[in-house]
């Protein structure tokens, strides 16, 4: 129980999510309301997570934020929008008499520290996990309950999908004020225990167009994006939810690939065009199609976000063979022993017949490394005070020696 | 004047055309009727041409065809469709009494030899020039006049656009029998004398998906293709014709790039996806956009067909600088003196300021060579008997020593 002297401190973790029906383009830039609904898979925090500590104290003179150990500008509009929104919800809660007397005063300033356990170079949408974790942690420290979609969404649209585990739909909503643009769980993480996820980190020569700017240009210039959002995505959402409910892997996999390709098609239709896929990405796509053709069924799917890295979905019985095939086509250059991170995968041989069917010239180093993971739960509170990223003085703890 | 003893021999040339509004997908596979109208620029035959000789004689026992010196299977359905169609038109003409008494009998067999003056490796749509030349040459030898769109189209859809010089629209038509699916000149080759064309031949690691099979898969699987063909291309055609009529280069250039990107977007939306653009293609696109941004106006455009090679449009006052920029970003690896073929281009330096704006790391060998050309006329008859590819015996002449 917090004393009046030491700060109120809460530490939480939140997951990364990967969209299988893609979000691209806003109908409202200020409120971050999307052109279409999207649907994602929450990845397990054992492999990929953001950890955030929030502390509130009368002694703090201003709001401050540290990201991966470096202080950030707290005036960033999206950070401000999250803080404003959580304080609005806290105020509303208190005015309705639901207040927990232990929660801190709304006039007190907050310190926030956040770290990712994965390198930015992995090209994963760290902002989704980051803002979900911020929203969740602030809600705990301010004693706010209920749906946090709006708080997270104001930070980064897809962050609202990281508020839940398992399979999550971000419903676009219809209202102009965005109150119905919320995330909702389609199925919990326990629903499809065989599903596995591989992140293939691809060597990129240059930083791609950022997603915020990219989306804006797409909305302004791509007629195909508008058509996709209005006429095609609604049916994709319904079909994807069905595939998940029924654990229909081939259906899930095909639609995941088609939706990813269609999203990248709208990027290419943008002017000037946006290309997130590079030759290695396309080689991975070809590998997946040939692997599936060899097996006579869709056993593996790819999806790509705003960068060249592939996210692969498969089932537990196929993961070892597919990892072996990736290692065959993209032989590790230097880090053979560190090529595979995350879940353990038993090494298996690739048959000569499969190699011959793939008919792909090996490209050493094309894939830097693989992270093996699975579907996971939503944000978690860490009760261990040692987990706090902020010390009793409200400043980031020094990093423990590695 | 042909005697009754020696064969009737005619030799013609036909040009390559490059679509600026793309054709992709058939509504009728048999008649080769397109999903949408398309519009192309005819390239000059001084640089790129097909030459075809047709000979007819009572002494020939069967139809025979040689392509680049190698005998082809004359039973190929598309070759048969052209031969059938030209004989049908000749028969029709004779039945109406328009016959020239010198024209050979319809029961006589034909020998055809055809050569391209550009390597297949250039990835140019040789079938368009080839079937246009075949249609034009057969029409001459059979004494058929009038529009040959249907003859050429039955060989290869885009071949009908190579029947005219300058700027050509292939009108999709509405009729089920395809009689109104014809090529029509939008403006002659003399209309826009400043326009220049550069073909950037890109190193490709593997043969891409053929356009016939690619189109079929796209028609079957891409919702974006259907939408583009129905809802977007009609306005593109009208706008492109206006840009050409008014010699509006920035308008022409932007629409050319947008239409190319949209076509490749529909390829990516195909399942399994088709990728004709590789990292070098995308680098060329980026180079064009940065070059235009540096100049503050759209001075250069790219377009890509079913392969990684870029076709660049620019005006005569910009060609030398753009060639220099291509040489800067893609330094020739071995053939510095043979890097530029076709029209002469004065070497000019690239300013340090422009190099800095481009900010592109040179990729040696990414572009193999450049062909510089311009807008050109339609098919031509060669009167010189030395030009015949078939000898008096109706067989291909031996190749002259180089």
TrEMBL record, chains A, B:
Part of which pathway? Steroid biosynthesis; cholesterol biosynthesis
Taxonomic lineage from the root: Eukaryota, Metazoa, Chordata, Craniata, Vertebrata
| Any one Gene Ontology BP term | positive regulation of cell population proliferation
Q: Which organism is it from?
A: Cavia porcellus (Guinea pig)
The gene name reads: MVD
Database matches in NCBIfam families: mevDPdecarb
Q: What is this protein called?
A: Diphosphomevalonate decarboxylase
Domain (Mvd1 C-terminal) ranges:
197-382
Its family remark reads:
Belongs to the diphosphomevalonate decarboxylase family.
Keywords, in A-Z order: ATP-binding, Cholesterol biosynthesis, Cholesterol metabolism, Lipid biosynthesis, Lipid metabolism, Lyase, Nucleotide-binding, Steroid biosynthesis, Steroid metabolism, Sterol biosynthesis, Sterol metabolism
Q: Per the record, a Pfam family?
A: MDD_C
